Amino acid sequence: MTAISEKQNAGNRTYIAQGEYAIGDGEEVVISTILGSCVATCLWDPVARIGGMNHFLLPEGPAMRSDVSSFGAHAMELLINSLVRHGARRERLRAKVFGGAEMYKGLTDAGTQNGMFVLSYLARENIPCDGQSLGGTLARRVEFMPALGKARQKLVPDASLVVEIVPVTEQTSDLELF
């Protein structure tokens, strides 16, 4: 087995987008994604040498939405359950987490909420977090080698333009429209 994915992969390299996840067990397998305020969790079992990555948008969402894999708790369970179905042991899982940037200053704190959610989820589930890169204002490109438990990130400087949302104040003028 090399890459197992919920989506079509390109050989040993799989790109995941928001709401997706992929797992793999070959040393040549690489799973990648690009994150802003979203969070990616890389989980692996060092004994079974299998791991995977998810990419979620928000900690929670409406229960009736069809894209529930875009939300934290569901995305985490999908990834964990898939790893266990393919030979990982839940009690041996290790994690590394990335993302949660503040991409739009003053508009939302979704990135912070995502980071807090994933860390509290891992603590609650007794999954050790061996590494994290959360917060900041830069987007990240993350690559994960699931069989080895190795991850690397590259900050994306072109995304460093944090947009500051300034509230519009009502202005008065001598112009009357009718």
Characterization of the model:
With 178 residues, this protein is an alpha/beta fold. It has one domain (3-160): 2-Layer Sandwich (60s Ribosomal Protein L30, Chain: A), CATH 3.30.1330. Helix content is 16%, strand content 34%. The protein contains two helices and twelve strands, in the order ββββββαββαββββ. The chain has helices at 72-85, 110-124, and strands spanning 3-5, 13-15, 21-24, 30-35, 39-45, 50-56, 94-99, 104-105, 129-134, 139-145, 150-156, 163-164. It has a six-stranded mixed sheet, with helices on one face. It has a four-stranded mixed sheet with strand order 2-4-10-11, with no helix packed on it. Strands 8-12 form a two-stranded parallel ribbon. A hairpin with a 4-residue loop joins strand 10 (139-145) and strand 11. The longest helix is centred in the middle third of the chain and has 15 residues, at 110-124. It is globular and about 45 Å long. The chain starts with a strand and ends in a 14-residue tail after the last strand. 38% of the residues are buried. Mean pLDDT is 79; it is low at 5-10, 65-70 and 160-178. Its EC number is 3.5.1.44.
Radius of gyration: 19 Å
Instruction: Classify the helix fraction into a percent range.
Output: 10-25%
The overall pLDDT, averaged over residues, is 79
CATH architecture term:
2-Layer Sandwich
The biggest beta sheet is recorded as:
6 strands, mixed
How many helices? The count is 2
Structural domain count: 1
Number of strands: 12
Q: Quick one: overall form?
A: globular
- In terms of per-residue confidence, which ranges show pLDDT below 50 for 5 or more consecutive residues? 5-10, 65-70, 160-178
By CATH, the topology is: 60s Ribosomal Protein L30, Chain: A
The quaternary state of the protein chains shown equals single chain
**Element pattern in H and E:** EEEEEEHEEHEEEE
Strand order of the largest sheet: 1-3-6-5-7-9
EC number: 3.5.1.44
Pfam family, one: CheD
Function: Probably deamidates glutamine residues to glutamate on methyl-accepting chemotaxis receptors (MCPs), playing an important role in chemotaxis.
Protein name: Probable chemoreceptor glutamine deamidase CheD
